[in-house]
Write a structure and sequence with these properties.
elongated
C-alpha cells in the first residue's frame, strides 16, 4: 500500500467518525417529543448514526 493511499484511507475514516459523532450529538440534543415526531427512539440513535455513516 502506498503512502497516499494510507493517508486517503485514514482521512476517509476520520471524516466518517466525525459525521457519526455529529449525528449522535444532534439527535441526542433533541427532546423525546421531537424524536417521537421523527419516529426515532433514544435507543435507536447509535444505530441510525452508524447506518448514516455507512451509506
Amino acid at each position: 500500500m502506498s503512502l497516499p493511499h494510507i493517508a486517503y484511507t485514514l482521512t476517509q475514516r476520520w471524516m466518517k467518525f466525525r459525521n457519526y459523532r455529529e449525528t449522535i450529538n444532534e439527535l441526542r440534543a433533541l427532546d423525546d417529543r421531537e424524536l417521537a415526531d421523527l419516529g426515532i427512539g433514544r435507543s435507536d440513535i447509535t444505530r441510525l448514526a452508524r447506518e448514516a455513516v455507512a451509506n
